[in-house]
C-alpha cells in the first residue's frame, strides 16, 4: 500500500495512492507548447471532447493563472480546485487551496477515485 502523509499548516494530511489515481492531462504540440497567452494554441474539438469526457465527474486541480484564463468560470460537472500562494485569493466558484498536498488530500477525503492535474500557473 503506497501512501504519503505530510504536515501542512499544522495539519497532517494523508493520501493512500492505492485508493486514488492522480493523472495529469494535457495536450502538447511537437515543440512542447501547452498554452500561449492564457489560451490554447489550437482549436481541436475532438481533443476538447476527450478532455471534457475524461475529467467529467472528477476533481480537477489547476493553478490560479489557469483559472484566471478561464475567466474564473469553473468547469461544469467537476470539483474545481484552484491552487494559489496568495492567502487572500477567494472565489465562490471553486475550492481554493494552497498546496498540491492539500488538493490531493481534499480529493481523497471526498472519495475521489481519480483526480486530474489540468493546468499550472
Oligomer: single chain
Q: Helical element count?
A: 3
Question: How many domains comprise the coordinates?
Answer: 1
CATH homologous superfamily placement: Dihydrofolate Reductase, subunit A
**Structural class, from secondary structure content?**
alpha/beta
Low-confidence stretches: none
**CATH domain class:** Alpha Beta
What is the beta-strand fraction?
25-35%
How do the helices and strands line up, and which of them pair or pack?
Elements: E1 3-8, E2 11-16, E3 21-24, H1 45-55, E4 59-63, H2 64-69, E5 79-83, E6 95-97, H3 100-109, E7 114-119
Could you characterize the architecture of this molecule?
Helices cover 22% and strands 29% of the residues. It has a five-stranded parallel sheet. The protein is globular and about 45 Å long. The chain contains three helices and seven strands, in the order βββαβαββαβ. The model has no long low-confidence stretch (mean pLDDT 88). The chain has a single domain (3-119), classed as Dihydrofolate Reductase, subunit A, CATH 3.40.430.10.
Task: Please outline what is shown here.
22% of the residues lie in helices and 29% in strands.
Provide keyphrases for this structure.
alpha/beta; Dihydrofolate Reductase, subunit A; 5-stranded parallel beta sheet; two-stranded antiparallel ribbon
Amino acid at each position: 500500500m503506497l501512501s504519503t502523509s505530510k504536515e501542512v499548516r499544522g495539519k497532517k494530511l494523508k493520501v493512500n495512492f492505492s485508493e486514488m489515481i492522480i493523472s495529469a492531462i494535457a495536450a502538447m504540440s511537437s515543440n512542447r507548447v501547452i498554452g500561449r497567452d492564457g489560451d490554447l494554441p489550437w482549436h481541436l474539438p475532438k481533443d476538447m471532447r476527450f478532455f471534457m469526457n475524461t475529467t467529467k465527474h472528477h476533481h480537477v486541480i489547476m493553478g490560479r493563472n489557469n483559472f484566471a484564463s478561464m475567466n474564473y468560470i469553473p468547469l461544469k460537472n467537476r470539483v474545481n480546485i484552484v491552487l494559489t500562494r496568495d492567502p487572500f485569493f477567494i472565489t465562490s466558484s471553486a475550492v481554493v487551496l494552497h498546496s498540491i498536498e492539500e488538493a490531493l488530500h481534499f480529493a481523497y477525503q471526498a472519495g475521489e477515485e481519480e483526480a486530474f492535474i489540468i493546468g499550472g500557473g
